[in-house]
């Protein structure tokens, strides 16, 4: 029986690359979510076992309806890749010579934080809820790649900001996701090994052709431990 995958932002970039890799294994039924109907239908038609659903990740009702539809049809969801994101070209640190600073706009926050979270928010979220979800049989990890060439920017825009030598091959990102889905042990570039059964609530930084586990801050006293346990519903 095929496993069920759901990928937000699955019509281009990293999301589409992961959808393609999963579809080629013939062991996954892949569901991609995006706001662009034409691009989504084209992506779904390009691969086997891929279905497109149109939804805006900023709209909770739309997103929840898609999750509900997929879950009710299949009876389960095995893998969710919260990948939707958008890049901005506004200089946050630009000086305003007169008057009130211009409205920075919150579309990026709505998509990146509410849809897939920014990297910093994502790491905190993963660490906060990961342990509790693991007790309920749900594995959650945060993948934090550096610069990957995607349709977020044109090639010219990418290379005008970042030197080409720091770009991460798409195959590296999809390969790490494949390792995570395998459930086996993983060893990072510094030799840190994490057993498969411990592979949850973790943040993974991707750079070049390597990845590194980002160690989380410790709990340094009993009062903090008790506070955290109470927040997570533990004794």
TrEMBL record:
GO molecular function, one term: oxidoreductase activity, acting on the CH-OH group of donors, NAD or NADP as acceptor
Keyword Signal belongs to the record: no
Keywords tagged on the record: Oxidoreductase
Entry keyword Oxidoreductase: yes
A Gene Ontology cellular-component term: cytoplasm
A Pfam family per the record: adh_short
Family note: Belongs to the short-chain dehydrogenases/reductases (SDR) family.
UniProt name for this protein: Uncharacterized protein
Upper classification of the organism: Eukaryota, Fungi, Dikarya, Ascomycota, Pezizomycotina
